[in-house]
Amino acid sequence: MVATEQPKRILVVDDEVDVTELLSYNLRKQGFEVESVNEPRFALETVRVFRPDLIVLDVMMPELSGIQVCRMIRQDESARAIPIIFLSAKTEEGDRIEGFESGADDYVCKPFSPKELILRIIAVLKRAGESSEEEDGRLELNGIRMDVERHLVEVRQAPIVLTATEFKLLKHLMQEHGKVQTREALLQKVWNYEDGVETRTLDTHMRRLREKLGDEASWLETVRGVGYRMVKSR
After folding, report:
1. Predicted TM-score (pTM) of this structure
2. Which long-range contacts (CB under 8 A, 24 or more apart) does 32-36 make?
3. Does residue 81 contact residue 52 with C-beta atoms inside 8 Å?
4. Residue 145 burial (CB count, 10 A)
5. Radius of gyration of the chain (CA)
6. What residue ranges do the domains of the chain occupy?
7. Which DSSP category does 215 fall into?
8. Is 134-230 in CATH node 3.40.50.300?
9. Higher-confidence residue: 131 or 11?
10. Nearest one of 188, 15, 201 to 108, comparing CA atoms
11. Of 110, 84, 89, which is closest to residue 22 (Cα–Cα)?
12. Facing residues of 138 across strands?
């Protein structure tokens, strides 16, 4: 008897019941296992019990904002690697940047199309899956050590926490060290985006990655007007 793959688990956190019911219905139609939370103070506890493969998280909620919940999740050792997609009625560029800087992997503005959101979920899950299925399980460069299978990164033997997207971005740059990676190529490789998508998302993730790498961020070079490159220490 051939074992069937377990459905991916999605946790939806939004204070609006209508939103969680709509998303739960559409996600279950696509074969996902879904849990929903309408009170953000219960979000982290539910994450620990339900152990989702991805979290859809509203930004504007009472008591705790989605930004605060995201930061709590990123600080929790058992949950920090779970991909997070923000839902928000706040559509300004600064709001999206704040979302990415708090640790989100993607940002979807309200009102949203359930179909578009599901496509975003599939894309983020694919990125996270590719990170965990890399054939070469370990990478090491310039004092940065990456264990792909365990989704762990150490800088000078000190662990750092990366989101699934940051992890894949760093992995690609390490694998292709010495070669300039254009913005378009990185958006396609890491985000699976087509040409024409704004590159602000890439710049924000790169800035966050540099902050987390600390002194070793000096090996990440910006090639003005082209993209980025990771160089190897001599």
Report:
1. 0.68
2. 32/7, 32/8, 32/121, 33/7, 33/8, 33/9, 34/9, 34/10, 35/9, 35/10, 35/11, 36/11, 36/12
3. no
4. 17
5. 18
6. 9-131, 134-230
7. G
8. no
9. 11
10. 201
11. 110
12. 147
